[in-house]
User: Fold these one by one.
Assistant:
Number 1:
Amino acid sequence: MFKPQEMDQLVKDYRLTLEPSLERRFSISAIDLLDKDKCLDYLDKVSSIFEASTEAATASLFAKRYSFLTIASSLYAMSSFSKGMDYSIGNCHIESIYKGQAWLPKVRLSNMQVSQPDEGNRNEWRDQVIRSIFAENIDKAWRSISKSAHISKAILWENTAIYVYWLYENTFREGASDDQLLRIQNDFEYLINDAPAHLFGEKTNPLAKFNTPKQVTLASAEPIRIRKTCCYYYQASDEPEDYCPTCPKIKHEPVSIG
């Protein structure tokens, strides 16, 4: 079981919820995303949130939300607490939550049983947790959405990858103890370098595929990973050519040194 303060943190900071949302229009059992008709109906509903000009753009922007709500609480629990839960797609529900004008959905699990590694067996346990999150959930969702909305699966996977990088390089480290920092770093390196492709349901590790070196360019004051795919954010913006800072459509000229 989680300690009360651990559960409070997952609920407060990492998009886990223990109760169904009262807002049902944009709430759905995640497994319904695997049904083409239900998937397209749901994407049509959430298109009103994103105001995107194309079905592919809606799918991509939804994938960002789904990636975050799925991986934030699950990976934080794994790396910070060495505790895991069943994040397979049949156990997950998208619960619609608004914070001000922003739509910030959360994940609710039907079965909240918690697992922990046996002594000296954390690596095998970690593989089971990773498989539950990615091969048994995200990969299945992306395959369905890719076919239903006619969008490249690579775009959906890169939307996931950028959040994995950001969470592990930034948010997960905040307030972490030395032991937690060590696990966070070890798990991150495993995810983006060594985790076998079958844990993601893919032929290659998608987190490794998009892990390009950070660069300082004229488009960004901070070092950034330039995306390999465009997420179509600009198709939901009121401003023409309003791209994400890491978009490959931007001319990322390197900054001269010296």
Number 2:
Amino acid sequence: MPHSLRLNSDCKDKMVQAWFFDEKVANPREPCQLENVALDVVEALGCKLFKFDAANKSSCPNLAKIVKDQNYNFQDEITVSPTTLPDYEKKVQMFLEEHIHDDPEARGCLDGSGYFDVRDKNDKWIRILVEKGDLLIIPAGIYHRFVPDLKDFIVAIRFFEGNPVWTPINRANNEENIQNMPIRQKYLASL
């Protein structure tokens, strides 16, 4: 069973689960669980997880505070499932491409569940399960990816500061260029 983590949570009874990713498992939508990951390891990577009332998002004080504190001024929602997302399998493969962004990636789970994988300091994958009421902020410059779990259903709210931009810079065939990018250098210096 994965280790449960409490990250920046105002909801003391709710926990998030994270573990090292088992790359030997053929289907990345499975849990792919290895050993537990300690809270300080995840926090040291710059990841933040908040809890919010997904059923009452428009009146949730925790969510309003996060949005204000992070200067988010734009949000949208996406449903990731075979029935709602055209070319579902192709999109899932795109989400699974390891990449970075110039800006932090903030995603709240309104329903369903899925996995965000982030690279640790030793370039190992850490898998973070996001479920209804979790809001994960991944720092700019960290290698990461997303995949729905075996239920193939997640409704996410995406938050942006400024104009919404979602431009992944894929690691494959770009690693040398990425390592020299200012955002990657800034991220590495923060470790």
